[in-house]
Amino acid sequence: MSDPILTLEEVHTDIGRYRILQGVNLVAPRGAVTMLLGRNGVGKTTTLRTIMGLWRARSGRIVFDGADIAASPTPAIARAGIGYVPEDMGIFSDLTVEENMILAARSGPLAEARRERIFAAFPPLRTFWRKPAGTLSGGQKQMLAIARAMAEERRLYLIDEPTKGLAPAIVAAMAAALRALKAEGASILMVEQNFSVARHLGDHAAVMDDGRIVWTGAMAELAGDRALQERLMGLSLDAHGEP
Fold it and tell me: How far apart are CA 141 and CA 233, in angstroms?
C-alpha cells in the first residue's frame, strides 16, 4: 500500500435524493489487483462510476497518480490513463469488432503488436474481427468490452463484474486473460461477485457495506478466514468453485 495509484478520501456521492456513497476511503496499490467486494446494492458500481466522473462526488478527494480528479470531466479522466469496463459492457452492436476497437483507441487503428496481444488474450475476437459486435455471444461481448479498455496503454483499469452471467468455461478464459493483464504489471480495481475469481486474481480486497468501506486487507487473509467472509458478506468463499 506504500505506492497507491488511486486513493479515495471521504468520498460522498448522491444520486437524486439518495446518498449512495457515505465517506468512502479506498486505496488501490500500483501494479496490483484490488477487489471491491460486498453484497448487492452497497455502492460498488457507484464507486467506479464516481471515479470515472460519470457520477459526480458531492465531496471528498479522488487522487489518481498524484492528481485530484474529483472535479475532472470523464474524457479527461480517460485521457489521464484510466480504462473503464462497465457492467453493461458498453459496446456498439451495429459496428464491427474492429470498429469498436478503433473507437476505443484515440490514435486510430490498433498497431499490429497491440492487436496480436489482444488476440492472444481473447482468441474469438480474431475470428469475429470484421463481424458486427451484436452477433457475438454474451461471453464474447464481455471479451470485447475488456479488449476495448486495452486498446491503449492504461495505468489503471476499472472493471465491473466481468464474469457475471457467463458459463464456467468462459469465466475460466476471462480469468486467464485478466491474469495475463495482471502479469504485465497492470493496476486493476475490480468489482466481482464470483468470489472464486476474486480469490485467485486479487492481491488486495476492500469490502463495502452501506456506502462505506468496512474492511481492507490482503485478499489471501480474507480468503482464509471463513468467519470474516460470512460476517462481512453473509457467505463463504468456499461456496464457489475454481475459476
Answer: 29
